[in-house]
């Protein structure tokens, strides 16, 4: 995997093979950040990266100037790798080793972007729970967005707060926003 833009543009990051991850492809990541680049000034936002895995998405935010990034993953190897990489590149990334659902139930942190990349084989109920907890616990700042990465075989358009989705190969990003009542 590589960092696409910003301070660390073109830097390759090689994750250990034994991590239980499926990193977002460079093509999909570049497309996602083209969308986000039109919505936010990266240096002015905060990011919560759920199911962070290798930290791929967080490194991209950090490279583009985001200084408030929190990664959550339950795998100790993933957290250790993110901490090591963040230290090497002097990136402002905080990590929390936790089951994402337990974290979301108790979280009080608010962010402009909440990015979730759960396993592609999650059930619609599990995807729905992520959305419900983020909005019920008010984890998004005003004008914030929840983005869930999922397989093209999963349709999240019927979930509350769904706004739109973008498809890139086998990967889909579904966007959820606070709607006016």
TrEMBL record:
Enzyme Commission number(s) of this protein: 2.1.1.171
One Pfam family this sequence matches: Cons_hypoth95
InterPro entries: DNA_methylase_N6_adenine_CS, RNA_MeTrfase_RsmD, SAM-dependent_MTases_sf
Domain of life assignment: Bacteria
One GO MF term attached to the UniProt entry: nucleic acid binding
SUPFAM superfamilies: S-adenosyl-L-methionine-dependent methyltransferases
UniProt keyword annotations, A-Z: Methyltransferase, Transferase
Name used for this protein in its record: 16S rRNA (Guanine(966)-N(2))-methyltransferase RsmD
UniProt organism field: Seonamhaeicola marinus
Gene symbol of the encoding locus: rsmD
């Amino acid at each position: 995997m590589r960092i696409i833009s910003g301070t660390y543009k073109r830097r390759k990051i090689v994750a250990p093979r034994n991590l239980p991850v499926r990193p977002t492809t460079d093509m999909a990541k570049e497309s996602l950040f083209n969308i986000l680049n039109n919505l936010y000034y990266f240096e002015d936002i905060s990011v919560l990266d759920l199911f962070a895995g290798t930290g791929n998405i967080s490194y991209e935010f950090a490279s583009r100037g985001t200084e408030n990034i929190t990664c959550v993953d339950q795998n100790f190897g993933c957290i250790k790798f993110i901490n090591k990489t963040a230290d090497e590149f002097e990136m402002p990334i905080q990590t929390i080793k936790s089951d994402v659902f337990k974290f979301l139930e108790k979280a009080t942190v608010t962010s402009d972007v909440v990015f979730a990349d759960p396993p592609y084989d999650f059930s619609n109920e599990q995807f729905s729970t992520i959305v419900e907890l983020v909005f019920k616990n008010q984890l998004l700042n005003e004008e914030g967005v929840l983005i869930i990465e999922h397989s093209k075989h999963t349709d999240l358009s019927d979930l509350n707060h769904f706004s739109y989705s973008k498809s890139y190969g086998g990967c889909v990003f579904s966007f959820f926003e606070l709607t006016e009542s």
